[in-house]
Automatic annotation (TrEMBL):
<dbReference type="InterPro" id="IPR001133">
    <property type="entry name" value="NADH_UbQ_OxRdtase_chain4L/K"/>
</dbReference>
<feature type="transmembrane region" description="Helical">
    <location>
        <begin position="29"/>
        <end position="52"/>
    </location>
</feature>
<keyword id="KW-0520">NAD</keyword>
<protein>
    <recommendedName>
        <fullName>NADH-quinone oxidoreductase subunit K</fullName>
        <ecNumber>7.1.1.-</ecNumber>
    </recommendedName>
</protein>
<keyword id="KW-1278">Translocase</keyword>
<comment type="similarity">
    <text>Belongs to the complex I subunit 4L family.</text>
</comment>
<feature type="transmembrane region" description="Helical">
    <location>
        <begin position="64"/>
        <end position="85"/>
    </location>
</feature>
<feature type="transmembrane region" description="Helical">
    <location>
        <begin position="6"/>
        <end position="22"/>
    </location>
</feature>
<dbReference type="GO" id="GO:0005886">
    <property type="term" value="C:plasma membrane"/>
</dbReference>
<dbReference type="GO" id="GO:0042773">
    <property type="term" value="P:ATP synthesis coupled electron transport"/>
</dbReference>
<keyword id="KW-1003">Cell membrane</keyword>
<keyword id="KW-0812">Transmembrane</keyword>
<comment type="function">
    <text>NDH-1 shuttles electrons from NADH, via FMN and iron-sulfur (Fe-S) centers, to quinones in the respiratory chain. The immediate electron acceptor for the enzyme in this species is believed to be a menaquinone. Couples the redox reaction to proton translocation (for every two electrons transferred, four hydrogen ions are translocated across the cytoplasmic membrane), and thus conserves the redox energy in a proton gradient.</text>
</comment>
<dbReference type="GO" id="GO:0030964">
    <property type="term" value="C:NADH dehydrogenase complex"/>
</dbReference>
<dbReference type="GO" id="GO:0050136">
    <property type="term" value="F:NADH dehydrogenase (quinone) (non-electrogenic) activity"/>
</dbReference>
<keyword id="KW-1133">Transmembrane helix</keyword>
<keyword id="KW-0472">Membrane</keyword>
Amino acid sequence: MHILYPVVVSVLLFSIGIYGVLARRNTILVLMSVELMLNAVNLNLIAFNVWLEDRLLGGQVLSLFVIVIAAAELGVGLAIVLAVFRNRRTVDLDRLRDLSEPEPEHEGRGDGAAAKEGVGR
C-alpha cells in the first residue's frame, strides 16, 4: 500500500477536527472534534508503522496510548461539561468565557429599586 493514501485521509480528518475546534460553539462538538484529531494521529501512526515495517510495532503501541489518553480525556471532559451545565444551564462556549459565578437574577421591579430597599438581605 502506498503511504500517500492514509496520510491524505489523516490530513483531511485532522483539518476537519481543527475546523470543528475553531468554529464550533458547543462544548460537546469541540470534544468530538478533538477526538477526530486524535484519530487522525492514530491513522498516521499505524500507516507509518506498516510502511516502515517496524518489528517492535512502535506505531501500534503509541496508537494504543493515544486511545487510552483519548478515553480519559473524553471522560474528564464530559464530567466538566456536566458540572458546568448544572451551574450555568448552558454549554455554549461564548457564554462560558467568564470564570466567575453567574449573577443571580433579582426578583422585583427590575429597575434596581429592590436592591436599594434592602430586599433579599
